[in-house]
Amino acid sequence: MGNVEEVIVVGGGIGGLAATYGIAKLGKKVTVLEQAPEFGEVGAGLQVGPNGLRALDALGVLEEVYKLGVFPRRHVFMDALDGKELSAVQFGESFEKSFGYPYLVIHRSDLHSVLLKACQKLTNITFLTNHKLASIEELSNYVELRCENGEVLRGETVVGADGIHSVARQLVNPASKPVASRYVAYRFTVPMEEMTINIDWDEKLTWIGPGIHLVQYPVRHKSVINQVAVFKSNSYNEETGDWGSIDELREMFADCCPTMQESLKFVQEGFVSRLHDIEPLEKWSTNRVTLLGDGAHAMLQYLAQGACQALEDAVCLVEKLGANGSNVAKALNEYQQERIPRTAEIQRGARTWGEIKHAEDPATRLLRDTIMLNRSADDYTYLEWLYKERKLTSV
Ligand SMILES: Cc1cc2nc3c(=O)[nH]c(=O)nc-3n(C[C@H](O)[C@H](O)[C@H](O)COP(=O)(O)OP(=O)(O)OC[C@H]3O[C@@H](n4cnc5c(N)ncnc54)[C@H](O)[C@@H]3O)c2cc1C
C-alpha cells in the first residue's frame, strides 16, 4: 500500500482553507487538493455577519481580516420601484453589544488570501493545485481519491469542501443534487470614482422589488463598490443551462427607480451565477469522510450565510477532531450532529427570505412593507437566530 495521508481536504475555497488551517493547527498533516491551477476566489464581495467573524476569531485570523474589511454603518432596505427607504439595521455599538462582533463586508479574494497566507505559514500543509477529484471510495483502512490528472491519493480522513457540485458528497449522499431556484445573480464591481449616483457609501443597501433585488456595498477601503443584481428568470431551462441573459436582467429591472437604473449601467457579462441550493442532508459523515461548506449545505445567498456557515463548520470540525483524539469516526459523527440542524434551518430560512424579498403579490408586499416600516433599526430580535453567541473554542 502506498503512502496514506493523515488528512486530505478536497477544495481550497474559504471553507476548505479554514478547515485546513484549523486541522493543521491541531498538529495533523493536511493535504489540500484544488482543481484550479491556483488557489483563489471568484466573484467580488462577501458579507460576514457576527457569527462568521466569531469563527474567524476562533481560528485566530480576525485581526488580519479586520485590516481588509469595511464596516458599514447600517444595512438599509430600499423599495426598488419608488426608491424609498423601507427599513434599516443599525450596525455599530448596539449591534456589537448584542452579538459580540460587528458586521463586515470584504472582497472575497481578500478573505481567501488571509486564510491562504495563514495556511502557508504552517509547515504541515501540502498544497496541490490542478488536482480535480474525480471519484472517491472508502475502504476499511483508508479513503482512496482518484483525480482527473490520473493521480491517486489515499487519506485516513477526508473533508469534502468541494462546493455545491461536491464529488465527496456522492459518497456520503449519492442522491443529493443541486436544486435550481430559477434566479440568476450578476456580480459586478465599479471603481468608486466612476460611481455617479448620490448614495451614502458608509452603508450597505439592498433594493427589493417583485422578482428582483440589488445589493450594493463598498470593499477594498471603499475604493470599489460591489454590486449583485438578482432576478427571477423567465427563460429558465435547466437542460441548456444558459438562462438569465443581461437583456432579461434589463427587462426585469425596467420599472426600477432612477438610482437603480444608474447603478445597473455597470452590469457586465461574466460573473453570472444561476442560483442553486441543495435540500438539507440527514447525513454528512461516514467513518472517515465528512462534508463541509457548500458541499454539505449549499444555500441560497439571501441571508449572506453560505461562507459564514462554512467557517462555523470548520471551527466545529476542528473542535471535534481535537477532542476525540484518534477516534475520527466519533469526531465526524459529533460534528454532523451539531452542524446539520443549524445549517438546515438556515438553508430553509434563506429560501423563505428570498420569497419575502422577491414577493410579487401586492397583498404580500403590503404586509412585508408594513412590518419593515414599523420596526426600529436597533431591534435585533429577528437576527438572533443567525448571529447569537454560540460557544466556540479557539482552535
Ligand atoms: C451571489 C452570491 C452571493 C453570496 N454572498 C455571500 C455573503 O455575502 N456571505 C456569505 O457568507 N456567503 C455568501 N455566498 C455564499 C458563499 O459564496 C459560499 O457559500 C461559499 O463560497 C462556500 O465556500 P466553500 O469553500 O464551501 O465552497 P466553494 O467556494 O465553492 O469552494 C470550493 C472549492 O473547491 C474546489 N473544487 C470543486 N470541485 C473540486 C474537485 N472535484 N476537486 C478539487 N477541487 C474542487 C473549487 O475550485 C473551489 O476552490 C454568496 C453566494 C452567491 C452565489
From TrEMBL:
For the keyword Disulfide bond, the answer is no
Q: InterPro entries recorded for this chain?
A: FAD-bd, FAD-dep_Monooxygenase_BioMet, FAD/NAD-bd_sf
What keywords were assigned to this record? FAD, Flavoprotein, Monooxygenase, Oxidoreductase
Identify which cofactors the protein needs according to its UniProt entry.
Answer: FAD
User: Flavoprotein: present as a keyword of the record?
Assistant: yes
Pfam families hit by this protein? FAD_binding_3
One GO molecular function term? Answer: FAD binding
The FAD-binding domain sits at 6-346
PANTHER family under this entry? GERANYLGERANYL DIPHOSPHATE REDUCTASE (PTHR13789:SF318), MONOOXYGENASE (PTHR13789)
Spell out the protein name for this chain.
3-hydroxybenzoate 6-hydroxylase
